[in-house]
């Protein structure tokens, strides 16, 4: 998408317009991954039950997905539920699963209209049957779409993913001598997708929380104090603007600068 097309979607004179004009649409991150954090604190700040923070977070998911697709991001991955989240109170986990089903039912038409492909990464087989049914339906309905790839990480853990990839390598009979980084990457949940260029974390926390540990080896990390339910298009644009100002060297060193006047 071009700047002109994106500006048709945002309000004239808005912060989104100002930020969009700072974005180089020829250097967008191919893959953006987001750790959605702060739902509980958002609710606590308003003296509401934690589950209200999760409900409010659905609006942020909706905005992030549509804004990313309209910008022209190739892949968006959202961290929705980790393997550790099962330790939370049963009522909270139940609410999260209910909200997930509701989101898929209400937003499926939006995904189809915006040509977005939906995929689950993690261990979905361990999710409740009714949730798996909704996930499978959404994946099947959007499988023919050719636009943005939208991954949702459910029952996901970065270490678990690497373990699962190693097991698949063994099951496939790959000789140890042939195992290298490229071969192992072919067995990750995100096989065939580019690694994230930009990792965004909300709520100001400075940790990666077992998210895409293999894939974010060289990702640029941008942290915002904004709690997830308040995250909107302008925050995504802020992250992209910050990302485009960085010098990505992938572990290399900056070439020495020639002295002024040197031949």
Overview of this protein structure:
- The structure is a single chain.
- The protein has 263 residues and is α/β, with parallel strands linked by helices.
- The chain has a single domain, classed as Decaprenyl diphosphate synthase-like (Undecaprenyl pyrophosphate synthetase), CATH 3.40.1180.
- The chain is built from nine helices and six strands.
- Strands 3-4-2-1-5-6 form a six-stranded parallel sheet, sandwiched between helices.
- α4 runs parallel beside α5.
- The chain is globular and about 60 Å long.
- The C terminus is likely disordered.
Question: Could you write a compact summary of the structure shown?
Answer:
By secondary structure, the chain is of the alpha/beta class. The chain is 41% helix and 13% strand.
List keywords for this structure.
9 helices; disordered C terminus; six-stranded parallel beta sheet; alpha/beta; 263 residues
Low-confidence stretches: 257-263
- Describe the oligomeric state of these chains in a short phrase: single chain
Gyration radius, rounded: 20 Å
CATH class designation: Alpha Beta
What is the straight-line distance between the termini? 43 Å
Name the CATH superfamily assignment.
Decaprenyl diphosphate synthase-like
Secondary-structure element pattern, one letter each: HHEHHEHEHEHHEEH
- How many individual domains? 1
Largest beta-sheet characterization: 6 strands, parallel
How big a fraction of the residues is strand? Answer: 5-15%
Helicity range of the residues?
40-55%
- Reported CATH architecture: 3-Layer(aba) Sandwich
């Amino acid at each position: 998408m071009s700047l002109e097309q994106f500006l048709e979607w945002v309000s004239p004179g808005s912060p989104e317009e100002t930020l969009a004009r700072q974005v180089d649409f020829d250097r967008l991150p191919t893959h953006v991954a987001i750790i959605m954090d702060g739902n509980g604190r958002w609710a606590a700040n308003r003296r509401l039950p934690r589950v209200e923070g999760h409900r409010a977070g659905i609006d942020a998911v909706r905005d992030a997905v549509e804004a990313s697709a309209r910008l022209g991001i190739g892949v968006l991955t959202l961290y929705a539920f980790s393997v550790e989240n099962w330790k939370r109170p049963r009522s909270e986990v139940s609410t999260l699963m209910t909200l997930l089903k509701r989101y898929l039912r209400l937003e499926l038409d939006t995904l189809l209209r915006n040509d977005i492909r939906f995929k689950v990464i993690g261990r979905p087989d361990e999710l409740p049957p009714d949730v798996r049914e909704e996930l499978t339906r959404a994946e099947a309905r959007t499988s023919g779409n050719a636009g943005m790839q939208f991954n949702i990480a459910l029952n996901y853990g970065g270490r678990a993913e690497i373990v699962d990839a190693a097991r698949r390598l063994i099951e496939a009979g790959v000789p140890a001598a042939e195992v290298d980084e490229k071969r192992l990457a072919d067995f990750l949940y995100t096989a065939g997708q580019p690694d994230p260029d930009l990792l965004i974390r909300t709520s100001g926390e400075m940790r990666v929380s077992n998210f895409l540990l293999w894939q974010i080896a060289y990702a640029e990390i941008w942290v915002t104090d904004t709690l997830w339910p308040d995250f909107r298009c302008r925050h995504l644009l802020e992250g992209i603007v910050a990302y485009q100002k960085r010098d990505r060297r992938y572990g290399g060193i900056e070439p020495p600068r020639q002295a002024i006047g040197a031949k």
